[in-house]
Design brief:
elongated; 3 helices; mainly alpha; Syntaxin-8; 2 domains; 121 residues
């Protein structure tokens, strides 16, 4: 039906507008990031008339609340660096275990060979 088609088209148009706003904010084209963030996330004057709450903001943590996009990006970069360090440590442990496993396998092969020689005599 036409009303449903119009409703869906409006939803698509709204998403496209938000995508453009996100891209502009990410590129730094927006001079007031906090203002555009509020508008983008549905906290602006457009939602005060009984609009639905934006689900993106329901679970925003205290760690990121009130931060600019640049600050959030820096915080995420620090988290990634910590995770990378942890993965490097895990890789070192796994590598050491691999070497130990290979050495154990070599030792077992040598002992099997010695045992087989013993049985043959």
């Amino acid at each position: 039906m036409q009303p449903e088609a119009d409703r869906r088209q409006n939803l698509i148009d709204d998403l496209l507008t938000r995508e453009k706003q996100l891209n502009a904010t990410f590129r730094g084209d927006v001079t007031e990031p906090e203002s555009s963030r509020s508008t983008l996330m549905g906290m602006g004057s457009g939602t005060s008339g009984g609009g639905a709450a934006n689900p993106w903001l329901i679970n925003e943590s205290e760690d990121t609340r009130g931060l600019t996009f640049g600050e959030i990006k820096q915080q995420q970069q620090r988290v990634i660096e910590v995770q990378d360090a942890g993965l490097d440590a895990l890789a070192a442990v796994i590598s050491r275990q691999k070497i130990m496993g290979q050495e154990i396998g070599n030792e077992l092969d040598e002992q099997n060979d010695s045992y087989c020689l013993f049985l043959q005599h």
